Queue: 2 jobs
Job 1
Amino acid sequence: MLQVLVLRPKRRCRCKIDRMNATQTTSARSQSFARPRFKAGDEIIVTALEHHANIVPWQLVCEQTGCTLKVAPINKRGELLFDEYVKLLSPRTKLVAIAHVSNALGTVLPVKRIVDAAHTQGAVVLVDGAQAVPHSRVDVRALGCDFYAFSGHKLYGPTGIGVLYGREELLQSMPPWQGGGDMILTVSFEKTTYNDLPAKFEAGTPNISGAIGLAAAMDYVESLGLDAIAAHENRLVELATAELQKIPGIQIIGTAANKASIVSFTLDGVHPHDLGTILDHEGVAVRTGHHCAMPLMTFLGLPATARASFGVYNTEKDVASLAAALGKAREVFG
Amino acid sequence: MDLKDLYRDVILDHNKRPRNFGTMEPSDSRADGHNPLCGDRLTVFLRMNGDRVEDIRFEGKGCAISTASASMMTEAIKGKDKADIGGLFGKIHALLTQQDAVADPSLGKLAALSGVREYPARVKCASLCWHTLNAALERGARAETPATVSTE
């Protein structure tokens, strides 16, 4: 934990490292931030393209507090209907919880505009940045968000560790979410006082090797340059999109104007799981399934998609291999 | 391993033209099967004569392995009684999960599923319909709501 902060003195924001992934940081925040202060009549807004990890914790909060979950709709291209989102905002809105980048479609959400609109109603905004941080430069203060969470393993780092950024006054106002060693200053049977940030939220022995591994991963990513990574991946996404569009029967799922690092697709007559097996057989690893975004798949009327994700290690040759493997899938299924 | 060992012609054929596909109204028993990780869903409908499956239908959405396995299952079990079906279930389970299993001649076309065991992630695709059939058989006569089984 210290390692990460020391290595990044220029990041002066109040950053904390949980020994948790983005799922767990979102869950912890929902319990520590939302549960004590939300009540019946309050509203939480999410978008229709969220990962389950940014839906289910809020449903739990709704069950626990009586507040209501509202869903900002998207269009078939996978873009947020911004005006519809704004219509959902009201003084009842206590929290807006959104992805920065859709893990299923690659849509980049207009976070700054979403945050600005939410703040006019006094709502707090939490951004799930698990898919954004590895692929682009993220400036939480420029975005203006109140919380920003991401995972280590999406950043070429270890599993089981992640980062939650939070505005200091909000983190100060939140009760600890776990009790134990390190999160206290003094303990007596009469009165316990809590440690300062970020230790207040880090009870027990931390994931030391995870934090060191994550720091190394962040150094690696920064040594490559986040702008260079974004440029490299955008080139591959554009190339892959163009190559896939040439293949008969391919439908690209998610065609937002602003996309990052992902091409999600289906092939007519071949179920995505069969596609995954055939591509795997040809040496191409893709993710198939509902991508932990079942409400999104239901909206799109699809059981599943195949998803090619591009990272720093991918090349144009990989795009050619993907296209060739899709040709093989068409051949197998005649 | 060749892809053709998984996607054999008989499997591709049953995927394209699933047999006994559709609903059955009324049925004596039905069960829903769901593979939550991949989203495959199917429903099995049975018309029984005592312990014997007089007729069977299935419907749902799934991959080629799941659809073909269900289609071939309906052909294999129609007219058989519960004890025979239990025996077939044991043989197909062994075929899907044991590396050295040799297809029993009584499996007939179902032996084409032997390639699935080389792809552990796909075993559930092939077995979902059998678990769902079992639930429908156990469910018995004219239940108000169908039983649901899950591979998880």
Job 2
Amino acid sequence: MNPRRRQVLGWGAAAAAGAALAPGLRLVELALARSPEEAASKLQRWGLLIDITQCGECDACVTACSDENGWTGHGRAETDVQWIRKVSLRDKRTGYAQTLPLMCQHCEHPPCVDVCPTGASFKREDGIVLVDKHTCIGCRYCVLACPYGARSFVHEAVEGQKADVPRGKGTVESCTLCVHRVDRGATPACVEACNKDGGKAMAFGDLNDRDSAIHKRLRTEPSSQIRADLALNTGVRYQGL
Amino acid sequence: MRIAAGITAAVLTVAAHADAPRFKIERGEACVAPVAEMRRDHMKMLLHQRDRTLREGIRTTQFSLKNCVDCHASRETGSVLGKDGFCSSCHEYTAVKIDCFECHSPERQKAAAR
Amino acid sequence: MARTHYSEIEGRSPGFYALLGMLGALILAGLGAAWFMEHNGHYVTGMSNRIVWGMPHVFAIFLIVAASGVLNVASIASVFGRDLYKPLARLSGLLALTLLAGGLAVLVLDLGRPERLIVAMTHYNFKSIFAWNIFLYTGFYAVVALYLWTMFERRMNRHTKPAGLVAFVWRLVLTTGTGSIFGFLVAREPYNSALLAPLFIIMSFSFGLAIFVLVLMAACQWTGRPLGEVVLKRLRNLLGVFVAAVLYFVVVQHLTNLYIARQHDVERFFLWEGGVYTALFWFGQVLVGGIVPLVLLFGATSRCAIAAAAAAVILGGLAQLYVLIIGGQAYPQLMFPEKEVRSSFFDGVVAAYAPSLPEVALGVGGVALALALTAVALKVLPFLPKSLADGDVGAAAA
């Protein structure tokens, strides 16, 4: 083979190898837990996909969330904190019944972030919506603004907090997408509990990663947002609604 | 004049030390920064770190509050508060009220990272 | 026209001290209530995760809205040049400051973390209308204080008109901001409407003037200052116009909603199925707050009638804010169209709320604070004209 053709073949092979490997390298980079020194980045957007046709009377997600994050009831249903709850639906005309877990939807354009006077309610670069309890003054405007009723105000003193989940009286809180677990490469407690006993309702992943399971499912199967008409681009998507 | 000043200073120092908070550091080796720097600047470090952790997701352990607690929590009570608690003993002496532990757990929950 | 003479009130009578004593007791009760709520946490109140803003906010927003509206009297004098209102301008400015102080005190003391007020004043999210309001409220103080100074300091009198204009514009922006706190809530059917901002403006005119009339009549009566029919007739007519305007806005808002199929459920809730909210709407807001004052103001001429009308406007205003703030939160958020919704977090149902004693005590304490500050200020500085008798206000019937 003449040297020029060999050269072209060589370059071609290198380019092909690069093209084949590059997505894989990206995949590896994202799949590994972010190291502690690294800040959250816009390259990732964390989200959930919940197939409510798989949801029954089970509330493993709720129990797991309260165990992981240390929130409990005090027997006062109106003021007790709830980061996630099961909602029962019944069609008014047909009587068709469903249940679904409802938590903070981690919107791309969160109304709670817009209305917070001190900026305590904020969206992290990777899409997780959080409350900075250091700056929260407890005005509860975000509780009013949330279309999903996802936020709770802490109505009493808190004791026995989990080390990874600081929470206290007089501030507002909601589902953190288990940010302390996500940052070390794990999945939110609700998803883990749901999938543990073969349940398949909840999936977690990086919505920006074309090779993630969640992205593939969203690309190939129908899904919807609650209150899609508000154009908030939620990070939590549902199937079967 | 100078002798008077010296005696006053000595008396005051002794008096101060007599009332100085007694606290147990609990972990023998060095802290994450020199003692003088920690005494002077620990609040600044915590303020800086909290935004890095919460807003940016940087979870290095060196200046994390959780790590401080894991190291300094009392061997008996497992907490940095309470009688002889590491944080509370100094803070009660200086009458500087802290509200960190209204939200953060004051208890050691795992072996400290270094 | 003769120059108006102002003087401090004497403020040494047993009646004055009794008034201050009573107001002081109410203020202490309010402070005690605030401590009780903050120390134990808000579970001791009637507020919940569905109704996060309760009685304290009804009172606070009433006081804040009235504070901006009460400045109207001074604005009519300075900005629109109506001489008849000039002697009333100082009291109008004072009430603006004291009512705002009372309202803000209630708002701040109800916060989950009131000790973080410094945080609220140093960390701003400028996308939040609430943050803008904090600026507008504190700026309002500076603007009105300056405005009052131009009225008190003779050498600054020529600056009263520009200062009055700034104050007028400032408080229109401020009240628009207060109404927008609710108007900007995208996901709540009773709220998300551009109409709320102008509704709040016209409510401020009405509530503010009603309070002004009552305070003026009480202050003149209790300090023996003559208050003539010319002034009262003007104020009576003005109040009637404002009450009618509020009714107009309410009618337009509900008529429009009734036209929109998607809003039918909300209208059904407020207009006939909402229990206490429906009762407060028709009897409180429309009857006591609208029709009764109109009948009293335009159908009767006695001073009793004016005072009763003003009191009715205030009661109706409180009812209106109760329906708006609490009723608006009680109505469920609609996430799933055409579905019945149930959950452990009270989704899909009308939320229950009953005002608790600490909440009412805090709200009333704020009102008492505003009135106490007014009484003390009247004693310290010459806010009140010596006489508002017909002969003394001159031929200012322009």
